[in-house]
């Protein structure tokens, strides 16, 4: 089995690991093995240095000052917008709105575009495999507007039932909001087909790219999505920053989200005029340092090479799948044909949380529970899973350690 996996040949893993300081630490006396990358990835030294550099050398508020520090900070902040534009293939930098993360990006669309465009009796389609962030904002909107939330079912492999999706589409469909890659299953959804079908029915499409953006090449123009959301902290950047991409015309026509400084042109008690894109949606002092370091993270990914990272992660996923399947009583949840970087499983008679605790005792970080996808867990009739998710710095040897840890834990618990 070993010789078919040539992971170290394609990426210089030792060199990559060297750039992530946290990977040198131990947990419970054991070297850290970090398999919780779908929750948040670890940060390379370059990203951490960018934060220190900003606070040490040019901390200032942006877009407001004419002094040197303010100009330097503004230039660095706006450089990240350009980097994001390239990263997702947007047509213009004005289509890139900085938010706090995927959750806020989806809420922004629900509370602006949704409030303006969704009327009583209209329909919004999501899927059974959505993260709560792509369920609850639409539920709030539908309750408010007396609109109808429809759900695309998922088959036993964890794939969208496309025939059922086609039947859900109709003249009242206003929006389809779909996860690109499932955080709980690893399923890669056929977003191109989903978008084409929705557009044929005159509906707009929002794509939740929280999990896809770090693994897949994103080209929002080729995809033709109307909105796309992702978070910095899942692409090796800091927490507290995210992106909402929207087609320029939609963003232009949408009402504002939050009011305050920066999002205005002129304010008087008689009325206020709003700023141009993208600032119209960025009220108040933003998360300057983290946004700058987010740009550094995107450069880092570009430097390593997204396709090489993806090849490496695919090999890890394939290897982990083969090895996990050999553990008696273990069932993988999510066996979609198109799958990436996440492996979720249950073990008969063993609670995922107990597994997680025993693995943590061996320095292995996995996530256990419903992964903020409770309706999906209900559809599989399980309370939760244990999930290992991979990043560029993980190794086959770490998977071997996971297997040893699991075998011991299962023996002890069952
Ligand atoms: N999923 C996980 O462990 P935020 O928290 O806004 O950065 O991302 C929310 C979110 C939205 N959609 C998907 C598909 C996601 O995976 C996440 C975050 C983490 O799976 C934390 S629950």
Show the helix and strand layout.
Blueprint: H1 7-10, H2 13-18, E1 26-27, E2 30-31, E3 33-34, H3 45-58, H4 68-88, E4 96-99, H5 102-117, E5 123-127, H6 136-145, E6 148-152, H7 162-168, E7 173-179, H8 191-200, E8 204-208, H9 220-223, E9 227-231, E10 242-246, H10 248-253, E11 264-268, E12 271-274, H11 288-304, H12 306-324, E13 330-333, E14 342-347, H13 352-360, E15 364-365, E16 367-369, H14 374-379, E17 385-389, H15 396-413
Parallel strand pairs: 3-15, 5-6, 5-7, 7-8, 8-9
Antiparallel strand pairs: 1-2, 4-10, 9-10, 11-12, 13-14, 14-17, 16-17
Helix pairs in contact: 3-11, 4-11, 5-6, 12-15, 13-15
The structure holds ligand C6P.
Q: Could you name the key traits of this structure?
A:
414 residues, alpha/beta, Aspartate Aminotransferase, domain 1, Aspartate Aminotransferase, domain 2, 2 domains, seven-stranded mixed beta sheet, globular, binds ligand C6P
Write up this protein:
- There is one protein chain.
- The chain has 414 residues and is an alpha/beta fold.
- It has two domains: 13-44 and 305-413, Alpha-Beta Complex (Aspartate Aminotransferase, domain 1); 49-302, Aspartate Aminotransferase, domain 2, CATH 3.40.640.10.
- The protein is 40% helix and 17% strand.
- It contains 15 helices and 17 strands.
- The protein has helices at 7-10, 13-18, 45-58, 68-88, 102-117, 136-145, 162-168, 191-200, 220-223, 248-253, 288-304, 306-324, 352-360, 374-379, 396-413, and strands at residues 26-27, 30-31, 33-34, 96-99, 123-127, 148-152, 173-179, 204-208, 227-231, 242-246, 264-268, 271-274, 330-333, 342-347, 364-365, 367-369, 385-389.
- It has a seven-stranded mixed β-sheet, sandwiched between helices. It has a four-stranded antiparallel β-sheet with strand order 13-14-17-16, with helices on one face.
- Helix 4 (68-88) crosses helix 11, helix 5 (102-117) runs parallel beside helix 6 (136-145) and helix 13 packs across helix 15.
- The protein starts with 6 loop residues before the first helix and ends with a helix.
- Residues 1-8 have low confidence and may be disordered.
- It binds ligand C6P.
- Ligand C6P binds at residues 38-39, 101-103, 131, 133-134, 179, 183, 208, 210-211, 231, 367, 371-372.
- Ligand C6P is lined by residues 38-39, 101-103, 131, 133-134, 179, 183, 208, 210-211, 231, 367, 371-372.
